[in-house]
Amino acid sequence: MLEVNVPEQPVVVLHGSDAVLNCSFSPASAFNLSDLSIFWQLTDTKRSVHGYWGGRDQLVDQAERFANRTSLWPVQLGLGNASLLLSSVVVADEGSYTCFVRVQDYGSAALLLLVAAPYSKPVVTLESETNLRPGDELALTCVAYGGYPEAGVIWQDGGGRNLTDNITTSLVANEEGLFMMTSVLTVVLEPNSTYSCGLINPLLGEEGYAFVTITGQNMAFPPVALWVTIGLAVCLLVLLIALAAVCSRKIKESCEEARREAEEAKELEEEESKTAMTLLNS
């Protein structure tokens, strides 16, 4: 049986770039290319990806989505290189590929192709930026676009505590199969709190973090406390007005009493003057 070799580890390729699916074989003796047959096909569905025999490419049975996207290295076929170049890789290309080679003897081997795409920088937003109160539940939303495969999400508070158990994450694929990832964290609001959302692409590694800090400026008084404050202010104002009225009345009464006392003293003085004049005239 012919020995055919492919990579044991998955082949990881970025979305939109070209992939080289390495395949080599070791014939027992020299051979003519006219005696060589190579078939690349999808392992699961058996659909043809690329064919070669009779000294040239044979693409009649090639799956339509691979048209004009595959090629071999003709000058290296005689050296035992049956690798396939797959251009402009998309998410739909991900999967297992089998390389079949026949030169007198026959052999095959399968490899795994994985597609990766980096996510955009995550952005964290608040459910609402007004009327926030300590103790309220608040939803923080972390969004990132255009990535593949599904990313791991890590939420942490300012102290580095893992909050990932409190999240809900959803994925929506676009027409290219790339994901928009939305992760929602529900927290109990505290003043001056910091939260971070981190994405980790399992194929590309860490991608980035976004932070949000909730300060006292975002928070409003609770409605009950606000009405109590307004009520106290109104009561204080009424009390001040009443106190001013009482003081004004007391001052007015004091002035009138002082005026009466002055008039009585004047009348008494005049009476005493008249009495003294009468005694002198006598």
What does the model show?
The chain is of the alpha+beta class. The protein folds into three domains: 4-116, Immunoglobulins (Immunoglobulin-like); 123-218, Immunoglobulin-like (Sandwich); 223-267. The chain has helices at 74-77, 223-281, and strands at residues 4-5, 11-14, 19-21, 24-25, 37-42, 48-53, 56-57, 70-71, 84-86, 95-103, 105-116, 123-126, 137-147, 152-157, 167-173, 179-188, 193-201, 205-214. It has a six-stranded mixed sheet with strand order 2-11-10-5-6-7, with no helix packed on it. A hairpin with a 1-residue loop joins strand 10 and strand 11. The model is unreliable at 217-228 (pLDDT under 50).
Structure summary:
The chain is α+β, with helices and mostly antiparallel strands and 282 residues long. The protein is 22% helix and 38% strand. The longest helix has 59 residues, at 223-281.
Question: What's the helical proportion of residues?
Answer: 10-25%
Alpha plus pi helix count: 2
- The H/E string reads EEEEEEEEHEEEEEEEEEEH
Shape: rod-shaped
Report how far the terminal alpha carbons are from each other.
Answer: 169 Å
Percent of residues in beta strands: 35-45%
Give the beta-strand count. Answer: 18
The CATH architecture of the largest domain can be named as: Sandwich
The domain count comes to 3
Low-confidence stretches: 217-228
- Helix vs. strand class: alpha+beta
Cα gyration radius (Å): 45 Å
Spatial order of strands in the largest sheet: 2-11-10-5-6-7
**CATH fold title of the largest domain:** Immunoglobulin-like
- Determine and state the CATH class of the largest domain: Mainly Beta
CATH superfamily of the largest domain: Immunoglobulins
Largest sheet: 6 strands, mixed
Q: Give the mean pLDDT.
A: 84
